Each structure stands twice: as structure tokens, then as C-alpha cells.
Amino acid sequence: MEGEAPAEPSLENMKKFLILISGRGSNMAALLKACRKGRLRAEPALIISNRSQAPGLEAARDYGVRTEFVSFKDAEAGEQRTIDLAREVGAEFIVLAGFMRVVTETLINAFPNRIINIHPSLLPAFPGLHAQKQALEYGVRVSGCTTHFVNTGVDTGPIILQRVVEVKPDDTEDTLSARILEQEHALLVETVNLLADDRLHVVNTRIVNISRN
Ligand code: GRF
Predict the structure, then answer these.
(1) pLDDT tens per residue across span 121-176
(2) Residue bearing the CA closest to ligand 1, atom 6
(3) CA of 5 to the centre of ligand 1 (A)
């Protein structure tokens, strides 16, 4: 085998997944970019936004990925439509990337331990909205970001990976958010690859035996 180049990841054999967004979509774009560069071991098959004017939709189209607007005003109908679309494209898991809705059992039961979220704090500290502002106001010295499986709570599901970001004395919400966001992008790619490789096993509320290489 000496001298043989490692096989290029091929989209053909990869698991497919959905990305749900509500806004800017920079985490989504990080996944699409990683995929384009051959650094993602799963294929983003469809981007769904619950806001028709989300800037992330335009970015997704630039990458040539299919997009859909799905209204979640009626949560049950929105989740059912999402499940139907997931089945249609053959998606095996779902990534919430700045999706500003709490999901219900309808979606969770259709994808048990197959929905992940990214959050801009070291959970369980500072769940919910404005996590970076909460961290600054509390006066913590470090914050960061977390990927976790989604349950019906607000940012309460089993933690997958975390990255630490130092809080500087002169940080504003904007400067801290920007440094955390940079880490979010890398963390999300890493987490999707673990999921793609079936390396995440949830036992009760914890994930055991993550082998990272
Ligand atoms: C990110 O900070 C993410 O952690 C949080 O919402 C923000 C979305 O940003 N859930 P983007 O839309 O991915 O740029």
C-alpha cells in the first residue's frame, strides 16, 4: 500500500443530512465549505429555513445546495413537512445551525439522537438567547461553544463537544461573539464528522466513548 494516496471522500457513499437555519447561516456555510473541500464525511442534501428571507438561503444557493422555506408558525405542520423532506432526500440526521425554534417530540421522535445543535456558550451555562451577553454580564473568564443532541428542552440535550474561548477584559458582546463563532465553525464540522462515522453513543443523558482521531 506504500505510496497510495488516501481515498478521496466521495459523495456517493456518504450519509445525507439536513441543515435547519433561521438567519445568517455562517455555521451552515462552514459545513458547505468543508464539504466542498472534501473535509466533511456527510453530504448536506437540503437547507431548510423557517424564514423566507434568511440571508443563509442565498449563501446555500451559491453552494448549489437545494433550499426550502418551511413555515413553523404551526410547529407541528412545520416539523411534519421537515420530516417528509428529510425522507424525500434520504437524510439520516439533522443539524440545527442558528435555528431559532425549540423543536418538539414530533421531530425528535422521528430522528432520535439524530438531531444536533450548536450553541455559543459552555453549556449548561447560559442556555437560550444572547448567550454571549449572559456570559459577559455574569463575569466569567472563559466561555466558548457546545454541540449537543437536541431534546425538548432549551439547549439541554447530551453534550457532544465543547471549545473554550477566553473572555478578555475589554470584550464587548460583538468581539466575544466573533471569537466564539470562529470556534463554532470548526466544532460543528468536527461534530458532523463524528456523527457521520457513527461514533456518538448516548447512554442516558451522556455521550460515551467518543473516539477522536
Ligand atoms: C450561532 O452563534 C449559533 O451558535 C447560535 O446562533 C448563531 C447562528 O449563527 N445557535 P449563524 O446563523 O450560523 O451565522
Answers:
(1) 999 999 999 999 999 999 999 999 999 999 999 999 999 999 999 999 999 999 99
(2) 98
(3) 36
15-208 homologous superfamily? Formyl transferase, N-terminal domain (3.40.50.170)
**Closest atom of ligand 1 to CA, residue 21:** 12
98 CB under 6 A from ligand 1?
yes
3-state secondary structure of 20: strand
Q: Which secondary structure element, helix H or strand E, spans residue 28, and what is its range?
A: helix 26-36
Per-residue confidence (pLDDT) for residue 5, from 0 to 100: 52
CB of 23 closer than 6 angstroms to any ligand 1 atom: yes
Amino acid (one-letter) located at 193 = N
Report the alpha-carbon angle 180-181-185, nearest 5. 120
- Nearest to residue 158, comparing CAs of 189, 126, 201, 192? 201
Would the pTM of this model clear 0.85, i.e. be above it?
yes
Asked whether 148 lines ligand 1 (CB < 6 A), one says no
Per-residue HEC secondary structure of 187-213 comes to HHHHHHHHHHCCCCEEECCEEECCCCC
Q: Which residues contact 212 (CB under 8 A, 6 or more apart)?
A: 190, 194, 199
Q: Give the pLDDT score at 1.
A: 41
Tell me how far the alpha carbon of residue 112 lies from the centroid of ligand 1, in angstroms.
23
Structure confidence by residue, pLDDT tens digits, 1-21 = 444 555 555 667 899 999 999
